[in-house]
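Any chance you could type out a protein's amino acid sequence plus the matching C-alpha cells because I've never seen that pairing?

——
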Amino acid sequence: MEGFGPRRQAQTRTVLLVEDDPGDALMIREALETYAPETDIAAVVDGVDALRYLRREDEFAGTPRPDLVLLDLNMPRKDGREVLAEVKADRDLRTIPVVVLTTSSAAQDIRRSYQLHANAYVTKPTDFDEFATVVHCIERFFGRIVQLPRSA
C-alpha cells in the first residue's frame, strides 16, 4: 500500500511553537527533541509575535518558513483563533499546516477551529508521558507520513 513503504529520510524541519505557558512549551520542546532531534523549534509566546514570525517581520526577518505550526488558543495580545484566521486567509501562509494544541476541549472551540481551517485539533493531556506521546504522534504524522508543500 502506498504510504506504508520504507520510512522517508529524516530532513530538518522547522516547527513554530506558539505557546504562552512555559511549562507546556518545555514539555513540547522536550518531546520534539526526543522524538525528532532533526527538528528546529522556533517559539513565540503570543499571537502578535506568531504573525510577525510567519510574515518574517522586524526581528524575524530572515527566519525560515515553518513546516508546521503548533498553536495554543488562549494567549495574550492576540489569541490562537485570530492567528488561525489570519494565517488561513493569507495566500502565502495558508498552506502551512496548523495544529491547534490547547487545553480546551469545548465543542465551540473545536468547531470554530475547524471552521477556520485548522489542520488538526488536539487537547493537551495533563499526564507528561501522554503529552509527550501526543506531540510525538503529531510530529510523526506531519513530519514523516504526510507530504507537505515546500516553500519556494
Summary: The first helix runs from residue 22 to 35. DSSP finds five helices and five strands in the chain. The two ends are 30 Å apart (CA to CA).
